[in-house]
Amino acid sequence: MAVDPWASGRDRRSGSRPPPRESVPRSGAGGPPVAAGSSARELRLYGVNAVSAVFRRRPDAIRKLYLSEARIAVLQPLLKWCAANRVGYRVVEDEDLRKLAASSHHEGVVADVLREPPQALADWLDALPSGPQCAIWLDGVGNPHNLGAILRSAAHFGVAAILLPRDSTLALSGAAARVAEGGAEAVPTVRLDDNAASSARLREAGFNLAATVVDGGDDLFATTLPERLVYVLGAEGEGMDRGLVADCDLRLSIPGSGAVESLNVAAATAVLLAAWRR
């Protein structure tokens, strides 16, 4: 019977002295590396800022940690916390980190963490402070790199939440969290009810909804934006649900040179948020 080295505690280490290199647990001969005990409730993160953001905000979510020897010094506070709280960590080779992350952009650290479930719309609205607020409603956006870039911009401009339709399959991935550079921990995710009920609840809380469209909308830079605003963005190509667009209070377009059809959804989000913040 195979023994889980994490369960025994003999691989939990701390301090400035680097632990010996060990191989990463694998699913079988030639198979990808796996962390023992991983489940759908867990998310595999990689990248220094993504992992550090979880450690700062909700360290108890960290389940396992893998890092390169080169990252020992910069991650000392995290390693000491792991040792004090009996959370296993290992120093491994870069190739093992690449396999764990399924990416060469691991930046020397990979962590298995508990996913944070999305909030219900009613709970989020109840806790939301008064005054100016901006949220982003993503209708059909699915690319993880776009999601990560949107989260990074949202964190930078102080967005209150990312709103996801009831049937959306979009979820944070390791790739999205790395691109977000810590922004995934700064911006909560909210699960909506059906579109009509969600729109009504948002309006009751003082929000206006603005559909972002490639053509035919009001000039973003010539429009006075409301203090409480939800930008509704659709997937590139398919766009937004037509009924949702029709239900919005505003339709906005970002003017440009016309040399290209439009900005991608992540770049457009940054422009939209800057305009609202101004």
Question: Could you characterize what this model shows?
Answer:
It contains ten helices and twelve strands. The chain has helices at residues 5-8, 48-57, 76-84, 94-101, 121-127, 144-156, 174-180, 195-204, 242-247, 265-277; strands at residues 42-46, 62-67, 88-91, 109-114, 119-120, 133-139, 161-164, 189-191, 208-212, 218-219, 228-234, 250-253. It is α/β, with parallel strands linked by helices. The strands form two sheets. The protein has an eight-stranded parallel beta sheet. It has a four-stranded mixed beta sheet with strand order 1-4-2-3.
Q: Could you give the topology of this structure?
A:
Elements: H1 5-8, E1 42-46, H2 48-57, E2 62-67, H3 76-84, E3 88-91, H4 94-101, E4 109-114, E5 119-120, H5 121-127, E6 133-139, H6 144-156, E7 161-164, H7 174-180, E8 189-191, H8 195-204, E9 208-212, E10 218-219, E11 228-234, H9 242-247, E12 250-253, H10 265-277
Parallel strand pairs: 2-3, 5-8, 6-7, 6-11, 7-8, 9-11, 9-12, 10-12
Antiparallel strand pairs: 1-4, 2-4
Helix pairs in contact: 6-7, 6-10
Shape summary: elongated
Biggest β-sheet: count, sense, barrel? 8 strands, parallel
Strand content: 15-25%
Strand arrangement in the largest pleated sheet:
5-8-7-6-11-9-12-10
Distance between the termini: 62 Å
> Helix/strand-derived class?
alpha/beta
Helix content: 25-40%
The value of Rg in angstroms is: 21 Å
Order of helices and strands: HEHEHEHEEHEHEHEHEEEHEH
Low-confidence stretches: 1-38
The tally of helices reads 10
